[in-house]
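Ligand: pyridoxal-5'-phosphate. Inputs:
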Amino acid sequence: MARIIFVNGSYLPYADASIHVEDRSLQFADGVYEVCEVRAGHLIDESRHMDRLERSLRELRIAPPMSRKALGRILRETIRRNRVSDGLVYLQISRGIARRDFIFPGPETSPSVICLARRASRKAGDETAQHGISVITIPDIRWQRPDIKSVALLPNVLARQTAIEKGAKEAWLVDKDGFVTEGAASNAWIVDEQDRLITRPADFGILRGVTRGVIIELAKRQGIELVERAFTVEDAKRAREAFLTSATSNVLPIVRIDDAPIGDGKPGRFATELRRLFHTQAEFAD
Ligand code: PLP
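Predicted complex:
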């Protein structure tokens, strides 16, 4: 089936879906994005993603191109036209198309909107989770505002590529003091010897993951003790469990960090249970 992409007001066949060379996302990575899970045809955690999108736009002083409701219609229509039942939908908003110049264009320039959806196999994701994944650790060389979900992702791309080349699935980024910030495209978690869930506070140093927020609520509901504090690579290697969270991978157990097996080298019970229960806490939209 031919894929359909939304670009600035039109639903276009994949081969025709293009953006102007002077779109500021191309020149300056001057744009923001969101990725939502689609499950059984439902958008997962739409309002949380929209809250974060609006915050990212505000932080970069990009005017919202349309209402939240109108953006929601584009997400749904893109999902529908691509017949995505399980998969993801990607929404990108840039500052728009203008003659290349560092300073912001005037109010006559409207933001560009791109939306695409694609299928992902639920079964493949569950199989990966059953085995658990390996991560590597790598210095965090990003700018100081990774809390903004901007399309400036080159350090994340390089980190993930290095992970894959080393036979791992994700890279955990490490700050100059030896603390894990987050993954290249996920949040980082460990379970300590007292069965406490530990994850870094969502300040300016990490992205406030939507999945992370849902897992925090779920942990509270389950009576699991949660500590929001930074942890080192050594803490992680000594942990009972480690896992990552993101909208596209849900909760993914980690069984190895660099050369160190985590716990007994198998997916841990907290990660496995939180993955199983995730969608009981997440928001399903029609
Ligand atoms: N951290 C980074 C750097 C990310 O890119 C992502 C998702 O892409 C996440 C964390 C997880 O966020 P979410 O749970 O909202 O997908």
